[in-house]
Amino acid sequence: MHNTRTVILASASPRRKEILRKTGLKFRVDESDYEEDAVPGLKPHELVKFHARQKARDVARRHRNALVIAADTIVALKGSLYGKPRNREQAGEMLKALSGKAHSVITGFTIRDSADSRELSGSVETKVFFKRLSMDEIKAYVRSGEPLDKAGAYGIQGLGAVLVKKIEGDFFNVVGLPLHALTEALKKFGVFVP
Hints:
Elements: E1 6-9, H1 14-21, E2 28-29, H2 44-60, E3 66-77, E4 80-82, H3 88-98, E5 102-113, E6 119-130, H4 135-143, E7 164-168, H5 171-175, H6 179-187
Parallel strand pairs: 1-2, 1-3
Antiparallel strand pairs: 3-4, 3-5, 5-6, 6-7
Helix pairs in contact: 3-4
């Protein structure tokens, strides 16, 4: 079935763009202006879906007949939630907390049809096991600058790969877009990827 709908990725993340490109879908990027703030009382899965929905709705308002895809990723460790670090110092603290432990990476996504406001959200959790990190390793990694724009202060698809012992679940979810769950959800909107 040929997809004739305009697909829009509501994210400026180069990693999400890269993952979506793997589907072969033609899409445009229109970044959401929505500011992610902590929403008290929401559990991690609900929180990322809430943020993804707000981003999708924000961008959908600007397009008349499009499918808008938005996502939000958070790192959860024993009741603490980690988004993107504010600075290098905070990045170092996050990495120290994750060192030698298993944590969850949870990505929420929303697909919104701007033509009829139909919307579907989901979330996917992947377990990531970090090796034990020395202070020197943490400092060197923070100096690389890579942790600064990533939830949990690391990028599994970059230098951060060496921090990870193993993962259980969807690798792409850790990068920022759960590819399998997303392509399954797109079918409900009549979009089939090869």
